[in-house]
Amino acid sequence: MEYVRLSGQFPKLTKSAVTLGKFDGIHRGHRKLIRTILERKKEYGELAVVMAFVSDRQMIFTSEERRTYLAKMGVDVLLECPLNDEIKHMKAENFIRQILKGDLQAECVVVGEDFRFGYERKGTPELLQKFGEKYEYETVVISKEMEGSRKISSTYIREELKKGNMEKIRDLLGRPFCVSGRIEHGRGLGHRDFFPTANIIPPKSKLMPPNGVYVTMSHFEDGDYPGITNVGYKPTVGESFLGVETNLFDCDLDLYGRECTVDFYKFTRPEQKFTSFEALKAQIRKDIQSGKEYFQNENSSQKTLRFESK
Ligand SMILES: Cc1cc2nc3c(=O)[nH]c(=O)nc-3n(C[C@H](O)[C@H](O)[C@H](O)COP(=O)(O)O)c2cc1C
Ligand SMILES: Nc1ncnc2c1ncn2[C@@H]1O[C@H](COP(=O)(O)OP(=O)(O)OP(=O)(O)O)[C@@H](O)[C@H]1O
Question: Ligand 2 atom closest to Cα of 20?
Answer without folding.
Answer: 29
